[in-house]
């Protein structure tokens, strides 16, 4: 166990959080972390140790050469096995990769490169012990009809979705960019026949404008991925309590992954504070359901 943190310490923290209180309403939803900025300079041993201390026991690794974890496409097979072992020997689940690949490119060469890179990340995720890869829709372009972009994104998703299914992986299509509104993702999914392609919610305030979040949520409820991104849970521009209620009612069992970029003096303590807020939201939703 890295940096002196034992599995027993981690389990004690879970018990202290109230997650296992006898007789309490339960949910299989879990709190985790994506390395976007707060974890960008944490190598894997430090990342695992910090997540254990914060009781953020699921991790998604952002892909880019700037990340200290170093889990990228060129990673050799032996090092991929080492990454897998480090997570397997800890209580932290590696839930997959957060790629920046997008399928809106008007340039066919860039689109094909995004498809091939996504396949590479799916293979990487499988070999390091993850279960899926995040991708973007991402934008509409002034010179391209919207319907054409929607069709193109769907075709690309069918290609990578078929490949993902053969690896036992999931393609997590994030609610991101001008082509990433939930209403648009529903239109894309209507053209995707690969069940491995699912929607990754992203706390996008645009989908809650005019009090419409529940309606928009219902559009994709039957195709949700097993992870979502949340941001600052103190930010009232997005209805996190309502999202929690809807997911509890739906019996969703995935990971809420914190993606933060604000500057804070102590990232681990800030991560702990976000977990505590999340636990409060979950407890209130479970109480309302019961």
SSE-based structural type: alpha/beta
Q: Approximately what portion of the residues adopt beta-strand conformation?
A: 5-15%
CATH class: Alpha Beta
- N-to-C terminal Cα separation, in Å? 38 Å
Number of helices in the DSSP assignment: 9
Strand order, sheet with most strands: 6-5-4-3-2-1-8-7
The biggest beta sheet is recorded as: 8 strands, parallel
The counted number of beta strands is 8
Residue share in helices?
Answer: 40-55%
Task: Estimate the global geometry from the Cα principal axes.
Answer: globular
Number of domains: 1
- Rounded to the nearest angstrom, the radius of gyration is 19 Å
- CATH architectural name: Alpha-Beta Barrel
Fourth-level CATH superfamily: Divalent-metal-dependent TIM barrel enzymes
Describe the protein.
- It is a single chain.
- This protein is α/β, with parallel strands linked by helices and 290 residues long.
- The chain has a single domain (25-289), classed as Alpha-Beta Barrel (TIM Barrel), CATH 3.20.20.
- It has helices at residues 7-16, 44-54, 77-88, 108-128, 146-167, 182-189, 213-220, 240-250, 267-289; strands at residues 30-34, 58-62, 93-102, 132-136, 170-174, 197-200, 227-230, 255-258.
- An eight-stranded parallel β-sheet has the order 6-5-4-3-2-1-8-7.
- The chain is globular and about 45 Å long.
- Mean pLDDT is 92; it is low at 1-23.
Q: Layout of SSEs?
A:
Elements: H1 7-16, E1 30-34, H2 44-54, E2 58-62, H3 77-88, E3 93-102, H4 108-128, E4 132-136, H5 146-167, E5 170-174, H6 182-189, E6 197-200, H7 213-220, E7 227-230, H8 240-250, E8 255-258, H9 267-289
Parallel strand pairs: 1-2, 1-8, 2-3, 3-4, 4-5, 5-6, 7-8
Helix pairs in contact: 2-9, 4-5, 5-6, 6-7, 8-9
């Amino acid at each position: 166990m890295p940096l002196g943190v034992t599995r027993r310490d981690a389990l004690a923290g879970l018990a202290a959080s109230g997650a296992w209180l006898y007789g309490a309403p339960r949910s299989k939803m879990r709190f985790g972390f994506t390395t976007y900025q707060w974890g960008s300079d944490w190598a894997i041993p430090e990342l695992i140790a910090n997540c254990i201390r914060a009781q953020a026991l699921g991790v998604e690794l952002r892909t880019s050469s700037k990340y200290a974890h170093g889990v990228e496409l060129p990673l050799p097979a032996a090092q991929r096995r080492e990454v897998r072992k480090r997570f397997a020997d800890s209580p932290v689940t590696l839930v997959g990769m957060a790629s920046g690949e997008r399928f809106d490119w008007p340039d066919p060469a860039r689109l094909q490169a995004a498809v091939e890179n996504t396949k590479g990340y799916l293979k990487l995720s499988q070999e390091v012990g993850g279960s899926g890869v995040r991708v973007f829709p991402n934008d509409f372009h002034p010179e391209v009809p919207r319907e054409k972009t929607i069709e193109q994104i769907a075709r690309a998703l069918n290609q990578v979705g078929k490949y993902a299914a053969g690896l036992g992986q999931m393609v997590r299509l994030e609610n991101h960019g001008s082509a990433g509104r939930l209403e648009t993702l529903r239109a894309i999914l209507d053209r995707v026949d690969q069940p491995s392609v699912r929607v990754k919610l992203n706390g996008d305030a645009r989908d809650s404008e005019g009090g419409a979040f529940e309606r928009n949520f219902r559009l994709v409820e039957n195709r949700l991925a097993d992870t979502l991104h949340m941001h600052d849970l103190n930010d009232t521009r997005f209805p996190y309590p309502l999202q929690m209620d809807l997911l509890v009612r739906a019996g969703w069992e995935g990971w809420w992954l914190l993606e933060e970029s604000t500057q804070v003096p102590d990232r681990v303590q800030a991560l702990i504070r976000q977990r505590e807020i999340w636990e409060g939201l979950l407890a209130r939703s479970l109480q309302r359901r019961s």
